[in-house]
Amino acid sequence: MVLAQLGGSISRAIQQMSNATIIDEKVLNECLNEITRALLQSDVQFKLVRDMQTNIKKIVNLDDLAAGHNKRKIIQQAIFNELCKMLDPGKPAFTPKKGKTSVVMFVGLQGKLCLHPHVGSGKTTTCTKYAYYHQKKGWKPALVCADTFRAGAFDQLKQNATKAKIPFYGSYMESDPVKIAVEGVERFKKENCDLIIVDTSGRHKQEAALFEEMRQVSEATKPDLVIFVMDSSIGQAAFDQAQAFKQSVAVGAVIVTKMDGHAKGGGALSAVAATKSPVIFIGTGEHMDEFEVFDVKPFVSRLLGMGDWSGFMDKIHEVVPMDQQPELLQKLSEGNFTLRIMYEQFQNILKMGPIGQVFSMLPGFSAELMPKGREKESQAKIKRYMTMMDSMTNEELDSSNPKLMNESRMMRIARGSGRHIREVMEMMEEYKRLAKIWSKMKGLKIPKKGEMSALSRNMNAQHMSKVLPPQMLKQIGGMGGLQNLMKQMGSTKDMMGMFGGGGDK
Ligand SMILES: Nc1nc2c(ncn2[C@@H]2O[C@H](COP(=O)(O)OP(=O)(O)OP(=O)(O)O)[C@@H](O)[C@H]2O)c(=O)[nH]1
User: Fold this and answer.
1) Which residue has a Cα nearest atom 25 of ligand 1?
2) Residue 335 belongs to what domain range?
3) CA–centroid distance, residue 120 to ligand 1 (Å)
């Protein structure tokens, strides 16, 4: 079961429970059993699932709930909290500091239980993604290839590093991974790199030999952080594998790769439990920038189909150039999504990568504009749209009234750009679709980065109702239910917490 399906099953179970006129023990048990089934099917370890069920039952004591309490809300919140707890080991991972040298060692198994035994966990790719992510933020990362077992590992790292313009170290001749690791770390310390990343072997003749090698590399390089890289498709094997690494080296964080694939994602939860370390990033594709910071609450919100405002805002900050941000956010909060804004955003997309990532974070919105695996086609489409928009007048670009674009205007644009009128119409449909989504931002106070709580303070039920997916709103009991809920919760901040946007970052 893919994670999205897991989310769907859980949401359905909650929905079914909410439809019941009276929520008694039987209804609660049915709901919990449904959720348990979904989690087990997603490869979450049995013990974790059982504990979660017990905990929810403990928190939600139906008899104790005085009449008038919102049982649904309590149960829903309990499920949300328990899922968060599963993914949050309670202590944050070591975070390297810019300008201060840190050594980060990556470990992970090739994964003989993977669907494709010849494919690695994605460790080497992830090392580069991690380096690239930090480099974009002004760090001076460097890559060391201490995988001497797999022929081609150094070439792969070299290729990736060269593409991203990140210094690297490795050897075709030397067969001692410890020696290479130490030399590489020494060299980059001298060169004042602040993030020295050591990639290690993922396969060996025997697993015991691999773990011993990890122990030696770790002892010799004294990493500040050891990151366990796990393929999201390893399933139930995740717990044992993660635990085996934890016993050899001090794993401090987890990165789950291939979250874009068709794998069951539940193993991630098990890896967290086995290593008592948080997931810090997830890999969402083969490209360098398909790498996302992992935050528990927004993730669970997204999992439950509740949308992820904070991730969305972060993406805006990442994708839109700094100097354009205030202006764009201002325009959006006025609700005027013009063709010119669309044009400017297309420019950003072409510069920065798929906006599908951004839109997929909006509540109830899937990445239709840039479907996964069809990025090239989508880019060509965007370029085509931009050529057509180049033939538009300022009046047309700055209007937010789609009625302005009558047939004769569209004919002129088609002629001017050498495209068919059908294509201009298609673009206008795309514009209307985007405008509709962005119009939900109208009147919304947009926070600066790091001011998420400002957003929540300024959210009222009206805004909330606009951005929540309709099925969710129904589940809460429509506008009235939402207002009640917000009153009961005292502040909208808690509400946003529940929907994934709460708290300062
Ligand atoms: N779809 C998808 N593919 C990924 C992701 N991360 C890595 N890959 C692909 O997975 C394959 C294996 O990645 P590698 O980085 O070579 O794996 P490795 O773990 O270093 O391999 P070993 O050294 O053998 O352990 C490559 O084809 C990568 O492009 C991801 O997040 N999504």
Assistant:
1) 202
2) 316-441
3) 5
Q: 169 with 232, same domain?
A: yes
Write out pLDDT tens, residues 468-480: 545 445 544 556 6
pLDDT at 333 over 70: no
Is the ipTM higher than 0.85? The answer is yes
Contacts of 231 (CB under 8 A, 6+ apart): 108, 111, 114, 120, 121, 122, 256, 257, 258, 263
Tokens of 441: 């931002």
140 C-alpha vs ligand 1 centroid, how far in Å?
Answer: 24
- The answer to whether position 456 is within a domain reads yes
Whether 505 is in a domain gets the answer: no
Q: Which amino acid appears at position 30 of this protein?
A: E
Shared domain check, 71 and 124: no
In a domain, 446, yes or no: no
> Using CA atoms, how far apart are residues 389 and 315, in angstroms rounded to an integer?
25
Q: Is the pTM of this model over 0.80?
A: no
In a domain, 311, yes or no: no
Q: Determine which residue's CA is closest to atom 29 belonging to ligand 1.
A: 286
Ligand 1 contact via 502 beta carbon (within 6 Å)? no
Place of tokens 């088609």: 414
